[in-house]
Amino acid sequence: MAESALALHAVSAGYGETVVLEELELALGAGESVSLIGRNGVGKSTLLETVMGHTALHGGAIRLHGQDLTDLRPYRRVRRGLGYVPQEREVFPSLTVRENLEVAARPSAATGARRWTLHAVLELFPQLAERQAHRGNELSGGEQQMLSVGRALMGNPSVLLMDEPSEGLAPRIVEELMRSLKGLRDDEGLTILLVEQNTRIALDFSPRALVMNRGRIAYDGSSEALRRDRPRLDALIGVAGGES
Which of 53, 140, 163, 228 is 20 to 30 A off residue 21, Cα-Cα? Predict the structure, then answer.
């Protein structure tokens, strides 16, 4: 069996003594895109934060291309090849677009992977190229999200984690952003784990879907099967769990 790009084995984690993830098992293949959906509060963001090392790990192991990350600090995980686009975007407000990107530049940890440079990121997001002299706090929400994705790419990750990239954005901006993300999926060979509250976007983005419930994976299978079986989807995530 081929080695997983990202694997979580019996992971229990949370905040302080509070456990959010319980004995969670998950494996993503190299170059695979997977969407993670579920109601608010079931542990989706906690899963990403746990992979990045931002939570209290109560048990289990996390591996990236077979290398154990469990005891590594977050910045060392980034150096090993993890990229993270947080839900809050967290761009540096006083730095320009160009400075936000340059400060995140790291050499690639993956052999043969594309080298993400400032030029490559601005080519992916032409709107940022036009705004590269503007500060982070002068950008629209959509531009900040593009900048957050571009900053993660400047670390030259082999695995990209994205938390709710469409949140709070106008439909036209979401369409533009998802078009760029699909380019990463289809052309760059990145392994992508996408947390997305909008089920339509999530199921359209990835052939494989995960549904979380109470800190565990309640469904791991075909996105198309969920799309065609709306009663099952509603039962898994609740009717209010996402936009259709």
Answer: 228
DSSP 45-73: HHHHHHHHT-SEEEEEEEEETTEE-TT--
Q: How far is the C-alpha of 42 from the C-alpha of 21, rounded, in Å?
A: 9
- How confident is the model at residue 139, as a pLDDT? 95
Q: How far apart are CA 237 and CA 109, in angstroms?
A: 36
Q: Give the global pTM.
A: 0.91
Q: The domain spanning residue 210 has which CATH number?
A: 3.40.50.300
Q: Is residue 11 situated within a structural domain? A: yes
Owning domain of residue 225 = 6-237
**117: CB partners within 8 A, 6+ apart:** 105, 154
d(CA 234, CA 199): 10
Residue 105 tokens read as 């530049």
Residue 119 lies in a domain: yes
Residue 243 lies in a domain: no
